[in-house]
Structure formats: C-alpha cells, structure tokens
Design brief:
mainly alpha, 18 helices, about 60% helix, about 5% strand, four-stranded parallel β-sheet
Length: about 525
Amino acid sequence: MSTRSRKSEQEVDGSCPEICNVVNPSWMGLIWDVFLVSNLVNASPEKHDFEHCERTVKKWASSSLDLEVKEDKHKLQDLLFFLHVPRTGGRTYFHCFLKKLYSSSLECPRSYDKLRFDPSKPNCRLLVTHDDYSMMSKLPREKTSVVTILRNPLDRIFSTYEFSIEVASRFLVHPNLTSAKQMALRIRSKTKGVSTLDIWPWKYLVPWMREDLFARRDARKHKDLDYVKDNDSYNMEEIVMPLHEYINDPIARDIIHNGATFQVAGLTNNSYVSEAHDVRHCVQKYKTLGEFVLEVAKKRLDNMLYVGLTEDHKESATMFGNMVGAQVISQLMASSYSMVGAANNISEQGTSFPDSKPENSHHEDPNNSTGQEANEIDSAIPSTENADTTNENMTVGALMKSYEVCISSLRKTQSRRRINSLKAISPANFSKEARLQVPKMVLQQIISLNSLDIELYKYAQDIFAKQHKHFMPKLYTTDMQASIFDIAYGNPLWKVVSLAISLVFLLLLMFLIVNAKRRTSKLKI
C-alpha cells in the first residue's frame, strides 16, 4: 500500500494524530492499546469502587443473616444481653428494672470498649452495654437473649447533640482546656472507675465538644463579647457549635447518623467485626447499599426477646416488666431452689465448697456494677437505685411499683444535673420548646442523613405492635387479678375487716365447741 493511501486511511479512521508521521508505524498498535487501557482504567474508578463496595457489603450481609427466626425467641435464655442504644432511656431500665432483679454477682464484667469483658465468667447472667451486636461473637449465641430499645431518630439526634454538649460543659469550670484534661486524668486515675469518657460513643463526642466549647469561649474573650443577641439555642455559634454544623461534621456522620442501625447490625466504629469499617464506609458512600445492612438489622430485631420504644414509655415498661421481668424472677427462683437443694446434698455428704471469690473482685471498682452512663463526670445516683441486694420474693407487681418510684427519683436527679450543667453555656438552653425554632431545612437534613434509622424505627414499631397485641390482653387479665388481690388483701381497711371476720368466726367456733361439751356432760349425768 502506498504512503498516500495509508495516510488517507488514517485520516478517514481518525485514530492517528500527526505524530504518526514521525513515529514508526509498527509501534502505533502497541501505543494505541496502552492509551485505550489507560483511559478505561482512569475513566471509571467510581464504578470499580462501587463494585468493590457492593461485593464487600453483600459478603458481610450473607454471612450475618440468620437462616430463620428463633422459634423460642420469647423465652429468656441463660444470659440477658441488653444492647443499649445511646439516648433511648436504657439507663432507667438498667437501674430501675435490672438492678432490682440481678445482684451484682450475676452481672457480666462491664464491656467498656472491650477492656474488661470476660465471657468465661461462669455465673454471668446479665450484660448491659453500649457495645454493638458484634458482641454476640463473644457470647454463647444459643444461650443468650437480646433486648433493646429504639427511639425516633430525629429525637435521638437532638438528644445526642444536647447530651454531648451537656457533659462537655461541665469542664468549663476550668480556666483552660489543658487544665480540664489534666483534672479529668487525675480523677480517673484516682477513682479507677469508668467515666463517660471511657464509654462509646461519648469517648469521641464529649472530647470533641469539650475542645469546641473552650475554643468558642476563648474567642469570646478575645473579642470581649459579653452579650449574645441570638435567642436560638441550636444556632448560638458564639457559645456552642450550631446544630447544623454538628450534624455535618465527619465525626457525626461516622458515629451518630444511622447509629441505631449500625449498632444493631454490629457495624459501629467500636465493632468486633474486622470488616465493619469497610462496610460502614461503603454504605455511607453509596446509599443504595444500605438496604443490605438494614435487612440484617431487621432480622436481628426479629430474633430479640423484647424491643421497646422510647416514645411509648409506659407501655414499653409494662411489657418489659411482664415479658422479661417475670421470666427473670421465675428463672432466678428456680436457680435459687436448685442451689439450696445442691447445698443440702453436699452438706449431707460432709463436703464443703472451695474457698473462692467472684472473678471480678480483684481490681474491680464497685462503680463498675452500675450502668453504662451511671459514672458520668461527678454523677450522682439516688440511693433508691443502689439495689445491690435483690428481693428474693420479688413479684411482677412489686417490680412495677418499685420501677415507678425509681424512675421518678432518677428523673429528678437527671433534671437537676442538666440544669446545673447548662448554666455554664447560658443563655443557650436546650428544651422541647427551643427545638421548635430549628429550621425545617435542618430537620429535613437530619431525616435524610438517618434514612436507615427511620426505616428501622418503623420496623421496630411494627414489632412493638405485635408484642402489644400478643401480650397486653394477658397483662390486663393479670392486672385485674392483682387489683382484686390488692383490694382484698392490700387495702388497710379490708385488712381490718378480714381480721374482724376471722375473730368473729373464731369466737363462734369456740362457742359451738363449749356448747357441745356441755351437752355431752349432761348426757353422761
């Protein structure tokens, strides 16, 4: 082929630039192939990244899904794992329900970020922790029942924002951030207890807000600013980080948003699962992949012994007391009877127990037996909640009455503490009324950032409705019987009446016996 014809072919083809005139044609095929491959690789990194993420998420999901729902999911197993989603009211359940039922000796060593958890403890019957569902990999799955409480995601985000600032504001009594950090370290080293700064997610959120509060206070001093004009507590940037800024920070995106879904799925940044980081970030980057995580979380809710709702507090507490509390009482009574029987048998055989102490008696602080948020900085728990000794004759009715007294005391303590803490960031004052001032645009953004939690909460509502339908009729019957019992035996007036009737009956019986003896003696005469 002539040079002219080859050139014409290249011009028609449009594939060879002018460099063809000076480069050996034999190299052009190789150069062009390299050029095309390079373009293909560089043109679709997003596509390759998505495909990698899709494989990663699907692989995790398929290995995490249980084949079927447990048939005996409503039966309490040997170990109760309370998966405490932050800011859902779980602390009240721990102090006002579970501490009344389980003695400290039956609690598992606390799992604060995997530092003290010992799954080998033989008498471990209760685990209450902010750890996610991946904790189940450390527990005997078939012998463990899981319970949890979920909250409306919008309210949970508000509460998380408020609480992280509330706790951080307690450090503002110090002149500067360095002093605050040093004091916190000294207190923790002396008490050997567990503070909020040791607990997920507050170990990340509180230091973040603490640093921010000091920075804003220093800025006000530099500007000589004593008065804040804005009256919107959620957008008072001279005092605290505005809510709209908080929810868009990378820390919030990684830990807070869709936090309930990731916790139930076992994918938080505190997870035992090695691929948790990759799966979580793939889902955060490609929202469509969130469906796989959501499906796993739903399946795990299905398998739980109990699912409560913060918003339906009264009915949730009633169901918890009757669904969970009743079984705990029955289980502990059976265990107590068997232990008494075993002790009697051993005594008859002339043997004795070996000298032993609880496994966590050494190097363990008594505060470790309280709930996850019980040891907040300078926190105080009402004496009514320090129920290390449990009532062996506890009934569900007595448990519910005790719960009402306990929660009232706890709420008063929390309210006083909140008011005192927020004085440090006055005039900012978080309240339900102040939330109404937050722009709809910010609210919509929170909802969008928590789309998985929104769907999981709806699913939890369905589960709650089914629980309610299945158990509440039985509870109403039990309550009615209990009311009749209380009227007959619990009311002081009825006690007096019943005693009087008993005395009259006894006197009548004695009278009849005396008359019978007299008649017998007359007949003998």
